[in-house]
Amino acid sequence: MGANRVAVVVESQDPLLLGDFWARMVECRLTVDSTTGRCATDLGGNTDVRFVPAVQSHSDANRQHIDLASDSPEHHAALIGRALDLGALRADVGQGNVPWQVMADPEGNEFCILEPRGEYRQSGSLAAVVTHAEAPLTVGRFWSALVGAPMIRTHPEYTSVRYGGTADPALEFVRHPNPPEGQGRLHLQLLTRDGFVHPTGAPAVMRPCPVCGEPSAALTDPEHTHLCMSADCSPAENP
Question: For residues 207, 213, 214 and 218, what is the CA-based torsion angle, rounded to 10 degrees?
Fold first, then answer.
């Protein structure tokens, strides 16, 4: 899996403004395609976050969200302050009294700023991309097989797949008894350098992702959460 990458695709009413928020939030370079209006943060490693024009109006909650890592109480407080200064708001999703801070970005997408945790100490800015699931073990096994990476944590309430190097976020699947019925604005895109591999159980003819367009292929996980696959056309890094 080291040659493959995963992109977090975010539909946005204003990709440039939202991309600028996130680039400043994680202190990474923002690349802009003036032809398509798409933007991406260059996080290094095997991950990036892409901001694309919304193909439809969304009123439902997101099934997926980003967790940001912090390495000290001071860093945690600084990240919260930076988010507020950049236009984010504190959010209440029923989390109660927890050590992490739930925020909403300028377009209302929730994300979490985690308190310092040892398992994310070397993960870079993004600790994890979290998917709400009814059966985390089932969905975790699907993603582990899809990307060819191990499940590094297994529990009836949550599962983690580490799909890249230590500098990459984990793919985490957290039990939610009633995940949002719709997809929301975020989905995962698997970018493969080895060519498209037709997943077991997928339709013989797959349609392009309605958000990413060609040459991507639309899929769903066992709980009908949308994802897509595409060839990775970015330059390969020298060993």
Answer: -30
Structure tokens at 174: 């957290």
What are the structure tokens assigned to 186, written together? 């975020």
State the Cα–Cα distance between residues 214 and 190, nearest whole angstrom. Answer: 14
| C-alpha 229 chain-centroid distance | 14
What pLDDT, on the 0 to 100 scale, is given for residue 205? 59
The helix/strand count (H/E) of the chain reads as: 3, 15
| Phi, psi angles (nearest 5°) of residue 56 | -155, 165
Task: Render pLDDT for 43-81 as a digit per residue (tens, 0 to 9).
Answer: 766 788 999 999 877 777 899 999 999 999 999 999 999
Where is 171: in which H helix or E strand? strand 170-175
If DSSP states are collapsed to H, E and C, what string results for 28-86? CEEEEECCCCEEEEECCCCEEEEEEECCCCCCCCCCEEEEECCCCHHHHHHHHHHHHHC
Alpha-carbon distance values, 56 to 165, 188, 216 (Å): 34, 17, 18
Cβ-based neighbour number of residue 73 at 10 Å = 11
Tell me, yes or no, if the pTM score tops 0.85.
yes
CA separation for the pair 142, 75 (Å, rounded): 34
Q: Tell me how far apart the alpha carbons of residues 117 and 137 are, in angstroms, rounded to a whole number.
A: 22
Write phi, then psi, for 146 (nearest 5 degrees): -65, -45
